[in-house]
Amino acid sequence: MSDVGSSLGGAAGGGEDGRAISDGSEVQIQDQQPVPPPMPTSRISVKHAVEVIQTFDEYKRWLVQEIGFGGMLKLPMRQKLNLKFSAWTMSKVSVFQRAIILSESKKLKFWPEDVHKVFGIPCGHRSIRGRDGHITPDAIQFIKKTLGMDKKGVHSLRAVEEFLLRDVSETSSKLEKDCFQIAFVIFVMGHVLAPTTKHDYATIDFWGALANTETISQFNWCEYVLQCLLEAVRRLKKDMLSNNPGTNLVGCHLFLQVFFLHSIDLGIFNKKHNVLPRISEFDQDSIRNMITMSTDIGKNPTSHSNNKLRAAEDVCYAWQKYPQDQPNTLLAGTNSGGNSASTACGAHQFPRNDNATVTPTHNVLDVHTPIARLGLLISHTASAHAIPTCIG
After folding, report:
1. Smallest Cα–Cα separation from 240: which of 31, 90, 23, 38?
2. What is the 3-state secondary structure (H, E, C) of the chain?
3. What's the rounded Cα separation, in Å, for the pair 118 and 226?
4. Which of 17, 27, 124, 334 lies in the 20 to 30 Å Cα band around 239?
5. Where is this region: Disordered (predicted)?
6. Cα separations (Å) of 90 from 36, 98, 320?
7. For residue 177, how many other CB atoms are within 10 A of its CB?
8. Residue 42: what pLDDT?
9. 300-343 pLDDT, tens per residue?
């Protein structure tokens, strides 16, 4: 089974322009009698990510906030995820509509801005899989070498983690600070936002967005997360059609859990939508109680489809303000209304409680840091030992 990030272009959840592609599997599943998804496993690890993040001092946390990923510092400790619930929510997703389909009249469409509200990661105007996200093989090799990934395996998340645990302070070199920021993005993508099927594996198809740390926040990481998730949904549905006894859930199914539970009416378990990022309020006990409360009584297999949706005025997600028939995919960096992606992602109604800022849409002056000049450094280096590294 190939990993999510191995697909080139926009294959993970859509074409190069971001449009979702339906392979017909969701139609076949809807025509069948309800069947539970296969027994799920997953390499997503919120617990491990939080354990590493908790070691950060104030300066490291500031470095994370500087690239727009401050929301990930708010991840609550989760010992484990309810993977059966994740599999159920994924089985209800229409790849083509980008929506959780509960019934013909109950559809929860999701947009990149919803990922931003849940995790507080950048939702900028540049496409990770587009022209702006191109990276040369030499630049990829440079990043691997500086992070020590060439020693422990070419895609090793363990090597990235070891770099994050190193001492980095205001007196560190610019290259070390840049490498820390790059390592953090690779780490949270591999463990939470876009995990794959493989152990200790970091996909590299988003590394072009990391080549210049000054512009990391200008890329649409939310759209990339959704594309990986939609590809994961497609894979799950193929496993269901094949009657496979087990399935490995990839992509950020944690997003679907939070988005779904936060959009349905659970009475006393409802959470207000006035704190961002939303993930900060979904601790282990809260999400367990909400899943239990959402379970349909007397249904076999287990279902959560009978819940009412919350009133639109109580919801911060995009489905409450857009018509059901409005497209919710990003084409060439814009939404269907012609506005920039980051404009759509930045339409907040409530005060934030974190430092994950909304990405500006104006051009930002490219600063030629050591990482920004990857290609230049490599092309002018006569031998491997002359390449500046962060390896101690």
Report:
1. 38
2. CCCHHHCCCCCCCCCCCCCCCCCCHHHHHHHCCCCCCCEEEECCCHHHHHHHHCCCCHHHHHHHHHCCCHHHHHCCCCCCCCHHHHHHHHHCEECCCCEEECCCCCEEECCHHHHHHHHCCCECCECCCCHHHCCCHHHHHHHHHHHCHHHHCCCCHHHHHHHHCCCCCCCCCHHHHHHHHHHHHHHHHHHHHCCCCCCCCCCCCCHHHHCCHHHHHHEEHHHHHHHHHHHHHHHHHHHHHCCCCEEEECCCHHHHHHHHHHHECCHHHCCCCCCCCHHHHCCHHHHHHHHHHHCCCCCCCCCCCCCCECCHHHCCCHHHCCCCCCCCCCECCECCCCCEHHHHHCCCCCCCCCCCCCCCCCCCCCCCCCCCCHHHHHHCCCCHHHCCCCCC
3. 12
4. 17
5. 1-43
6. 11, 11, 21
7. 22
8. 95
9. 889 999 999 999 999 999 998 876 666 665 433 333 333 333 34
State the amino acid at position 323 in one-letter form.
P
